[in-house]
């Protein structure tokens, strides 16, 4: 189950890459820019601005979509089943209503990904698995990544590592670069923002660092969560204590995903302005570059 293939990306690994976005997430961080990835099943997005007032096509297809007294479309999301959502695919003429998520086989996905093989090879790029949390579908990732390796194509995965270790073990031989999140080191603060166990993430990261070919730690710097010197220094300390890890990317919080929360009828619980603390990021960079345990190369990524 995936929801997008983004071609010609240059942000999620080396060179020119295709990003395969898989559905389902085990953390549900409130700042996520892909909230449509959270559910492992199909999701329905509705953009009221695009809805045609003289159209009833979606209401004819579903008993759970109606117009209220003001002629505004209402969707009873609690009652919609996966089948109901599938029946709404391609119904809307204006793309006001769109279905997120599609099931395809390994062969079908490989065929799409291999279309850009010449670009991957020329640019030393490849294929990146993202999400959602791609390691919730380890069989799929492992099968596609091994096929890419047979073609001489580099593979990377973006993961929060909040999955059973056996899922990681399954894909480990087939992944060249691990882009792994390390969002916090304080379990209580982490738990008050995300659903999950920081202990599991740290334990997986420590094990992974002993086996992975390459790891890049990624830290979303989020207002009110970890945008302070103490939190960032502790994250850098943790990274410096790992085997085989000398690269860390700081990802300053932005608000580009807010609109999607409206389309999904989900509340947005984070700040409505991007992070603006350049001094904090510079302090973190210089702390990492002179770290007594292991020098960490920090990049600030947009
Ligand atoms: S099918 Fe699309 S345009 Fe027509 S009523 Fe539904 S959301 Fe609006």
Automatic annotation (TrEMBL):
SUPFAM superfamilies: Radical SAM enzymes (SSF102114). Residues 11-292 form the Radical SAM core domain. The lineage of its organism: Bacteria, Pseudomonadati, Pseudomonadota, Gammaproteobacteria, Vibrionales. One of its GO terms (molecular function) is oxidoreductase activity. Signal peptide: none annotated. This is Pyruvate formate-lyase activating enzyme. It comes from the Bacteria. Gene3D superfamilies: Aldolase class I. PROSITE patterns: RADICAL_ACTIVATING, RADICAL_SAM. Its cofactor is [4Fe-4S] cluster. Belongs to the organic radical-activating enzymes family. It comes from Photobacterium marinum. Keywords: 4Fe-4S, Iron, Iron-sulfur, Lyase, Metal-binding, Oxidoreductase, Pyruvate, S-adenosyl-L-methionine. NCBIfam families: PFLE_PFLC. Coiled coil: none annotated. PANTHER family: PYRUVATE FORMATE-LYASE 3-ACTIVATING ENZYME-RELATED, PYRUVATE FORMATE-LYASE-ACTIVATING ENZYME.
């Amino acid at each position: 189950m995936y929801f997008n293939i983004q071609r010609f990306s240059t942000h999620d690994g080396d060179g020119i890459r295709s990003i395969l976005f898989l559905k389902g997430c085990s953390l549900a961080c409130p700042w996520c820019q892909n909230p449509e990835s959270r559910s492992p099943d199909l999701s329905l997005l509705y953009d009221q601005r695009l809805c045609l007032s003289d159209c009833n096509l979606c209401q004819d297809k579903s008993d759970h979509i109606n117009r209220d007294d003001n002629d505004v479309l209402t969707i009873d999301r609690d009652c919609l089943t996966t089948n109901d959502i599938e029946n709404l695919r391609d119904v809307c003429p204006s793309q006001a209503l769109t279905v997120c998520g599609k099931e395809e086989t390994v062969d079908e996905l490989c065929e799409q990904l291999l279309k850009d093989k010449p670009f991957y090879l020329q640019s030393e790029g490849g294929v990146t698995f993202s999400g959602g949390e791609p390691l919730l579908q380890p069989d799929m990732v492992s099968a596609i990544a091994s096929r890419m390796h047979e073609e001489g194509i580099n593979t990377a995965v973006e993961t929060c590592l909040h999955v059973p270790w056996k899922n990681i073990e399954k894909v480990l031989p087939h992944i060249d670069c691990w882009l792994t999140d390390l969002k916090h080191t304080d379990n209580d603060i982490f738990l008050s923002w995300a659903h999950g166990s920081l202990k599991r993430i740290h334990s997986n990261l420590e094990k992974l660092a002993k086996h992975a070919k390459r790891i890049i730690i990624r830290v979303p710097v989020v207002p009110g969560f970890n945008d302070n010197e103490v939190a960032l220094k502790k994250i850098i300390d943790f990274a410096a204590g790992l085997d085989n890890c000398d690269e860390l990317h700081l990802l300053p919080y932005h608000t580009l995903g807010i609109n999607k929360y409206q389309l999904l009828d989900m509340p947005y619980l984070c700040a409505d302005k991007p992070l603006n603390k350049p001094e904090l990021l510079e302090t973190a960079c210089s702390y990492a570059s002179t770290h007594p345990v292991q020098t960490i190369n920090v990049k600030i990524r947009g």
